[in-house]
Amino acid sequence: MILKIFNKFYDTDIGYSFFNSKIAVISSSIFFVIFLCSFFAGIVAPYNPFDPASVSLMDAFTPPIWSEGGSSGFLLGTDQQGRDMFSTMIYGSRISLIVGFASIFFAMTLGVFLGITAGYIGGRYEIIIMRITDVQLTIPTILMALLVDGIARAVISRSMHDEMAIYVLIFAIGISEWPQFARVTRASTLVEKNKEYISASRIIGLSNMIIMFKHILPNILRPILVIATIGLALAIITESTLSFLGVGVPPTTPSLGTLIRFGNNFLFSGEWWITFFPAIFLVVLALSINLLGDWMRDALNPKLKKR
Amino acid sequence: MSLLEIKNLNITYKTRKETIVASSNVNFTLERGEILGIVGESGSGKSTIANAIINLIDPPGEITSGLIKFDDTELQNNEEIIRKIRGRKIGFVFQDPQTSLNPLFKIKDQLIETIQTHLNLSYEAALTKSINLLEEVGIENARKRIEDYPHQFSGGMRQRVVIALAISCEPDLIIADEPTTALDVSIQFQILSLLKELTKKRNLGVIIITHDMGVIAETTNKVIVMRHGVIVEQGNTKDLLTQPKSTEARSLVISVPPTNKKINRFKLISPDGKEITSSSANLTKNIIKTWGIRENTNKKLLNFSNVSKVFDDHFISSSKNLIDLKSVRAVNDVSFELYEGETLGLVGESGSGKSTIAKIITGLVKPSSGEIEYDNFSLYNSKRKYQIAKSRGQIQMIFQDPYSSLNPRFKVKDIIAEPLKFFQKKITKSDLNQNIYDLIDIVGMTRKSLDRYPHEFSGGQRQRISIARALATRPRLLICDEPTSALDVSIQAQILNLLKDIQDELHLTMLFISHDLPVIRQMCNRIVVLKNGIVCETNETEELFNHPSHVYTKELISLMPKIESIV
């Protein structure tokens, strides 16, 4: 059964291109492994770093297993609170991935909706939407996210803040990413709406909503999918940057960025592993998603489909 | 010794799943002063052979065996020799004059570059030669026009420039791949005359690749008929067109719409050589049952009166002073009437506004002024908004491009089901399926095709699906906008037969838009001739063809390529 599906996938052009691109196979398997690990963090990670009972300060600053003074219980050593680095990273990547996926989903929903309506309806509505995206694209992502975070801090009470932090983060990253989606969606919609099958739908008398979301949307999914993949890497990095700056998730539930920030304090006192492993982990994660996005962009582009 | 000799040429395209044979055992020769036509349906490998001669086959295609001998030099797979010959001894004219010239260079630069690459001439000499060439291909005021960019020339003029480029280095052979397909009839006539004239004057060999049998009849001396990469018949043009021997050639000749008379139906030949006489008469019974019996009342169905359409760049110009503006009027004060049960033809060259008229009737484009009444109600209200709810799907349209007129993400079943469900909200599942089956039967497709996606079908099959979709709303008025111009002749004949049958059985009224006069003659009862958005003449078909009264109509009729001219 699985073999059958696999064969069918291999038979398509996309599948063929996938299995013949080493980069695509390697990067997607790395991403897949990281994704599974963080999804099943409770099973994969040897400790639960969020559970204060399982952490002992006595174990703090244990170096990785292979260096002098390493302990067999802690593969990649421990941090300043005695939490197992490996487990903390797995749990941290879970938060990074959740924030990444959720914010991209948010940005995609908003951007695609505004883009498709702007492209299809046109007129004054289109001009307003597209000028808003133009203005927003002049504000750097990080700045936008910091701004949203600042406003959220002022609005939400202090006690609520830690709880709400992750949602604020998702909103902040999502709101700074949507213009990309809106632009690409609008451009593709403009191409698609002039095709004759759209004219045919209009002559039948279908409503604009049906034409936009049932006829146009499935035909412009490819470019959106590519931006979403590349945007996912960007969102994870933005999340880490924000957490590194201390405006992201609270320290009690650290993400990769938070871990790098903690470790940074000890970098020059010899405890390099606290910042090094989360940083490498972040690079590998972002790189694998980016490379996958690159391959996807080429594979889904009919103009590059020569061989 | 022949100018060009091709022997046992085999070309294959290797893809991941299969090896496609693009030409197998192709043999022919071409002498100086001869025009050879290669005809065949799309995918028959005619362009592949032309590209093989100058070694421009796109990978993964390759010449696997055979001989291409040009002036006693073997060309096959020898890029070094071909590079010297390509452009120098062999000139090439492509189909689309819009894209075969570089838009960023002046005509002068493109001509001089080509000439200096191949001939050892100074800049001054090359310039003089270029001007002479432009004069030779009939460009007036060549000394001044040579400084212009391609976009400053019209389509026909651009094709002349391309021909000037092709003959610039005094080649011995010109290969023209569909040289007039993108051009209007009058310009087509000029370009073909030019090619004929050059052939005689310069003693060239010319290969014309086309799917238009009229072009073949009027210009060529010899013809090759191809099918699936194999030459099925070759010979002298007159013999082949009057007494075709092979089934393919017979099928090609027989399905060309005659220009001199009106026939009832096109004869079709099945691959085994027998005539197909089937009609979808008995298949329409079910449809008629669900639609209810209609009768032709001959009443006025559509009244299109004094309609104008001005395309302005934006809504900057206020509608008040429209008349003062010198803006382009795509449709200018056009009036015609359409009676129930008839087929009205709209004929004209590109830019004559015929498609705009179709779009105005279907509400895709708003008219600037004028009144359109369908069945005694106005299609546009006082605020110029289209009243689609009132027509309730009674006006449907079949489009020109079968490759973009079906949603590629929908299965055929869903494409046909959508309008059915839209107009009959309470339709039961079994009724819906029955309706879909009836529709797919009537357009002559198998029920198996319902579960497939549009890209799995050929152009003609897709056009059939389009027809089924249009019929799903139970239309009374069917607008056909160049429904067959993207199809091969034999497929065109099938689709035209189908449209005729459907019209007869279901008592449809049709507005048939085309630039192709022979097709219009076969399909229509009355014809409106358009030029630059203005109606030149409206008349009964036979009257119009036999006694055209307007100068433009006369010109169009005299210039259309006639397959009968050879007989």
Largest interface: A-B, 17 and 30 residues
What percent of residues of chain B adopt helix (DSSP H or I)? 25-40%
| Uncertain residue ranges of chain A | none
Radius of gyration of chain A: 23 Å
Give me the count of strands of chain B.
Answer: 22
The total of helices of chain A stands at 13
Instruction: Calculate the terminal CA-CA distance of chain A, rounded to whole Å.
Output: 30 Å
Q: Whole-number average pLDDT of chain A?
A: 85
- Low-pLDDT residue spans of chain B: 315-320
Strand order of the largest sheet of chain B: 6-7-8-3-9-10
Note the overall shape of chain A.
Answer: globular
Instruction: Kindly estimate the percentage of residues of chain A that lie in beta strands according to DSSP.
Output: under 5%
The fraction of residues in strands of chain B falls at 15-25%
Quaternary structure: heterodimer
Head-to-tail CA distance between termini of chain B = 31 Å
Key terms for this structure?
heterodimer; A: mainly alpha; 13 helices; B: alpha/beta; six-stranded mixed beta sheet; 35% helix
Tell me what you see in this structure:
The complex is a heterodimer of chains A (307) and B (567). Chain A is mainly alpha-helical. In chain A, helix 5 crosses helix 11 and helix 12 runs antiparallel to helix 13. The model of chain A has no long low-confidence stretch (mean pLDDT 85). About 1% of the residues of chain B have low confidence. Chain B has a six-stranded mixed sheet, with helices on both faces. In chain B, helix 3 crosses helix 4 and helix 4 crosses helix 6. Chain B has 20 helices and 22 strands. With 567 residues, chain B is α/β, with parallel strands linked by helices. In chain B, a hairpin with a 2-residue loop joins strand 4 and strand 5. The relative contact order of chain B is 0.11. At the A-B interface, helix 9 and helix 10 of A face strand 18, helix 14 and helix 16 of B.
